[in-house]
Design a protein that fits this description.
Layout: H1 3-10, E1 11-12, E2 17-18, H2 21-36, H3 40-61
Length: 70
């Protein structure tokens, strides 16, 4: 299962709480270690792709794109 799916399951939309924060912290630590292994060129590509994705989310959802509802 992709890491994003596992993280999503840690979020409880009923209570707004995250479950199993230790596992979430471990996943973020591993992600940082993996990013530290990448070349500057690859990091730039990832940053550009991320920026493009954020722009598309904003274009689709407007001001609600990066906020929790409710």
């Amino acid at each position: 299962m992709p890491a994003v799916c596992r993280v999503y399951r840690r979020y409880d939309p009923e209570t707004g709480a995250l479950k199993d924060l230790e596992a979430l912290t471990t996943m973020l630590d591993k992600t940082i270690l993996e990013l530290n292994k990448e070349s500057i060129g690859e990091l730039c590509t990832l940053a550009e792709t991320f920026g493009y994705s954020m722009e598309r989310c904003y274009a689709l959802l407007g001001d609600a794109a990066f906020s929790k509802q409710g």
